[in-house]
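ok trying this again, last paste got cut off
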Amino acid sequence: MTQASRAPPVSRRVDDRLGQMQHHFKEEALIRDIHSSGARLPRRAATRRIAAAAALAIAATAALIGPAAAAPVSTTSNSAADCAGKSIPASKISIQMFSYWGWTREAGTEAVLAELSDIGYRNVEPFGGTYEGRTATEFADLLGEYGLKTPTSHGSTNEAQFDATIAYAKTIGQKYMGSGGSAAPGISTLENTLATADALNRLGERSKTAGTGKIFVHNHQGEFTTQFTDPQTGDVRSAWEILVEHTDPRYVTFQLDVLWAADADVDVASLIEEHGDRIELLHVKDGFLNGDARATPTDVGEGEIDWAPILDAAQGSVKYYVVERDGAPATREFAEDSFNFLTCYSY
C-alpha cells in the first residue's frame, strides 16, 4: 500500500509526538519496575451484528446477581443464540492495562484485575506502571489468582537491558515481546527506519531463542504519516511498510492499532488483507475521527470504526485482540462493553 507523498500538518506532527511520548513513558516505567523488583475507512454494509437479546439477558442476570453493564445494543441485532459459537473466543481477547492507568491508581492493580476477571477476560496486556513494585514472581502469582494470562506486554526494547526484560517476561508467561512503539533509533529518517528494522531483527531473534517469542511493533499515526522515497525506485512508502519489508517474519510481527491507523487515513481492512501474515496482534481501539486533529477514543463498538471488514479480514491471522481506550473512565464499563462487543461479534 503506497500513500501519496505529503508532509503531515502541524497538528498531526504534534499528535505523532504525543504518541511517541506515550511509548517512552511506558518503556521508562517498565525499566523502573524491573530494576526495583529485579485514508479514512469507507463505510461498508455491516456484517457484524451485536445481540440485543444477549444484552437483555445480561441485564436480566445483573438484576439477580448484582450490577453489571449490558452489552452495547445494535439496531441490527442477532438473537442470543446467533452469538454462540460464531464469536471471537475469550481466550483470544486481551486488554491493555494502560487504558486503566487512572483506575489502577485509585483502586490498585489487584482490584482492577479482579473486575476484569469477573467480566470474563482471560488475558491482560500490562505496561510499565501497573505492577506497583511487585517482583515478576509476585505479579505472576497475582495474575494466576484471577485466572489471567499475559501473552503480550508493552515493555522495554532497550537492547542493553533486554536480557532483564526477557527474564521478567518469561516469569509472567509472555508469548510476545514489544513496546508501545518500536525499537531505537526510530523512524525520523529513512536511515533510522532501516536501522530500527535491523534492531528489531536482533531483538526478535534474542527473544525467540530465549523462548518468549517474536517481538512486535505497535503503531501510532506516525508510522503511516512518516513517508520516504526509495532512492532506487522513486516509490513513496510509509515507515510502517518499510519496517514490514525489512524485518524477518520469523522474529518480528506487528500489533496494528486500528484507531491510530485509521486516523492516519489508512484503510485498515485492506492493510490486514495485504499484510495479514505479518499482523499477529490487533489493538482493538474505537473512537471518533477528527480530521487533522487527534481521534477521540471511546468504547469498542461505539465509535466510527467499521469493525465488520476489519475483524473479518483479521480472522485466521490475528492471534490476540487487545482492547484499549486511552484514558478510559475509572469504572468497568469500557472493559465490559468492549468485551461484550467482541464476544458477540458474528462472522
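PB: full thing came through this time. The first helix runs from residue 10 to 37.
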